[in-house]
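Appendix C: a fully annotated inverse folding record. The material below is reproduced so that readers can follow the format used throughout the book. The structure is listed first as tokens, followed by the designed sequence.
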């Protein structure tokens, strides 16, 4: 189900007939971001048990994996949804 949602999002972000689009779509497909593996409640700490790295890149990129481990969620994040910096307390 998550893969289907990712494909729908990817299709919605395309701009037809553009050279820039061809470059962007190839890099977009090859990057990963962090998604909630299970429901994360407000003020719950982020750990390797509740996040997963998936394609495409939406929200926090996988390169920030170690930066967000141990941080608390500002709000509830539902299962299979991308994680955004605005959803995390980075202090």
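Designed amino acids, in order:
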């Amino acid at each position: 189900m998550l893969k289907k949602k990712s494909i729908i999002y990817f299709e919605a972000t395309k701009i037809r007939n553009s050279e820039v689009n061809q470059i962007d779509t190839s890099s977009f497909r090859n990057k990963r971001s962090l998604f909630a593996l299970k429901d994360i409640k407000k003020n719950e700490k982020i750990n390797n048990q509740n996040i997963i790295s998936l394609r495409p890149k939406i929200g926090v990129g996988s390169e920030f994996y170690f930066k967000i481990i141990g941080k608390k969620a500002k709000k509830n994040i539902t299962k299979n949804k991308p994680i955004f910096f605005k959803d995390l307390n980075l202090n």
